[in-house]
Amino acid sequence: MLRGAAALFALSLLVAPRAAAFERTRVDTDPDKALFWQYRTVSVRPAYDTSLDVGASAVEAAIGRSLATWNTAAIGCSDLLLVDEGYPTGLTTNLVGGRLDMQNRIVWRESEWPAEVSPETIALTTLVYRRSTGEIEDADIDLNGVHHIFTDTDDPALARTDIENTLTHELGHLIGLAHVPDPEATMYAMSLPGDLDKRTLSADDRDGLCWVYPEGRLTPSAPRIPGSGITGGCAVGATPSGAALAVSLLGLAWLLRRRRAGR
Hints:
Structural class: alpha/beta
Oligomer: single chain
Number of domains: 1
Radius of gyration: 17 Å
CATH topology: Collagenase (Catalytic Domain)
Number of helices: 4
Distance between the termini: 39 Å
Low-confidence stretches: 1-19, 225-248, 257-263
């Protein structure tokens, strides 16, 4: 499992050569394979009341806006749909030893944050996927309430770590997008306190969504998976082997870039 390498992964992408305007998260053992969801309706299960900084109703509304941002961007180019399926059955996520259950939880950690993950990490999306194909099986988002104060305001002067700003970014990881070096993009790896700009997607973010999940067609470079719920179009790709499911965890950390005195 790759939990301890989460922060290093985030930083390394900032200096990697840029091959495209967006980046995809890759299988840890095969960088030629990128991650994707087989089915185009992906649900999340937010624990709305786990933040100690913002009330449950405001958290629910902010999550709804973040989901709507990606869904609106998909109109005309992608059939991916992100939906809120309500409160999860438990709060144990992939990050803290949860088992694969496909609930895709969103949970604030307020009493304890994993020691192996930098306290500067605002949130961490942990994906479980098939190494043989890159198909995502489960995705959980943990938000670091131990070291960060979350807010829900449209005033940058009052905002600290904005919920909508953070979750719009993390949902990009949930669908398989990786960090990019462009500070104007939602998928940029760092955020300043009070940042609200990443509530909305850049053109590059939308391009990534539309490329990975093209409407009526299979994900480019993805192998055809028996029983795929995607209809229309045709795909060229390797047929997945009959090997047993290989589960791996990949943490995608979003780091807080702290302002230094006098700068």
